[in-house]
Design brief:
Elements: E1 6-7, E2 26-33, H1 37-52, E3 57-64, H2 71-81, E4 85-89, H3 96-106, E5 111-114, H4 126-134, E6 139-143, H5 151-169, E7 181-184, H6 185-190, H7 201-207, E8 212-216, H8 233-250, H9 255-283, H10 291-324
Parallel strand pairs: 2-3, 2-5, 3-4, 6-8
Antiparallel strand pairs: 1-8, 5-7, 6-7
């Protein structure tokens, strides 16, 4: 693997000098927090030690996602003791995706780093991720190559999920579930995160044309507190995967999915009804008790409904983009001729 780095198969383009370097810029570290009171002080001490060595100004944004164990009191103390710390307290527990979205919304940096508050992500890996951005990548995603979690309850479901997500989104990563990531600020603020979509950030970024690299990072066992993850999330992740695939492939052209299904269904239905009609007219076959006739009629009606859904979807898409002036593209670089 050379320098311990692997470029994902779905990378869009190659890194190059045309991308702005990181250099002396502002780095925003976003950390969602939910009942991690015992881990916050050690994590912050490690993190600030790393940030102090960076050739960049920095800020740390903690998002308290409805904690009930005194985490907010700890965050208040960190805020009073470190001017770089911003604390965002949500009114209740909204979930990790919402907490990350809130943190990104409050981030001012040209670079945004995401990490967990449980101490399992190693802050010492942040300079390596930033180094990849300096090489020209838009997003550097952590890969827990030696993951310190239970094998059957955490790692096996994660491996299956990573394979499925990569196969469907065509952005193949070893580890979609690793929160530790660094990305350019404009890219981070361009993401729209809902549900459990924080684990699909690389796929969403690739859909915007981002250049992505995956970096093996150190992963540590949890020392304090309990994991918030479990098998119960599997169904929600699968449903969000369907949403991500639809948004990335058909959000601006819903007729292409609903229309194809509708046309195929209508065609099959008409073929069935036509064949049975020929049998009735030419051969005099009785059709009253032929279930195949009802299947043909059902498929024809369903096909028309799918086509109608596609047309309505097209109207909604145009209303959504045109009424709010939302672009259907993301500009990377513009080279203009001198106007002299």
């Amino acid at each position: 693997m050379g320098d311990q780095t692997s470029v994902v198969a779905g990378e869009r383009g190659s890194p190059g000098a045309e991308r702005p370097a990181i250099g002396d810029t502002r780095v925003s570290v976003v950390i969602p927090v939910h009942n991690e009171a015992e881990n916050l002080a050690p994590v912050h001490d490690e993190l600030t030690g790393v940030l102090d060595r960076l050739d960049a100004t920095s800020e740390v944004i903690y998002v308290d996602d409805g904690s009930t164990d005194g985490s907010f009191a700890v965050l208040q103390r960190l805020h009073l003791g470190d001017p770089r710390v911003t604390v965002v307290q949500l009114s209740r527990n909204f979930g990790q995706t919402a907490a990350l979205a809130a943190g990104i919304a409050h981030a001012c940096g040209e670079v945004v780093v995401l990490m967990d508050a449980d101490g399992q992500n190693d802050p010492a890996e942040i300079p390596r991720l930033l180094g990849k951005l300096a090489e020209g990548y838009d997003l550097a995603a952590g890969w827990r190559a030696r993951r310190q979690d239970p094998f059957w309850s955490r790692r096996v479901p994660s491996m299956a999920a990573n394979w499925l997500i990569g196969a469907i989104t065509e952005v193949r990563l070893h580890d979609y579930g690793c929160t530790l990531k660094a990305m350019r600020g404009d890219l981070a603020r361009g993401l729209r995160l809902y549900g459990e979509m924080h684990r699909f950030i690389p796929a969403l970024a690739a859909d915007l044309g981002a250049r992505i690299v995956e970096v093996p990072v150190n992963h540590r066992p949890r020392i304090h507190g309990q994991s918030k993850y479990g098998l119960s999330r599997t169904i929600r992740v699968l449903l969000d995967l369907v949403t991500v695939k639809f948004l990335s492939s058909y959000s601006t052209r819903p007729i292409h999915i609903f229309g194809v299904i509708g046309l195929l269904s209508t065609l099959v239905g008409l073929v069935i009804v036509g064949a049975l009609g020929i049998e009735r007219i030419v051969l005099g076959v009785e059709l009253a008790r032929r279930p195949l006739l009802w299947l043909g009629i059902l498929l024809s009606i369903m096909g028309l409904q799918f086509i109608t859904m596609g047309l309505l979807g097209e109207l909604l898409v145009r209303t959504y983009h045109e009424s709010q002036g939302k672009p259907v593209y993301r500009v990377g670089t513009v080279l203009e001729r001198s106007r002299t």
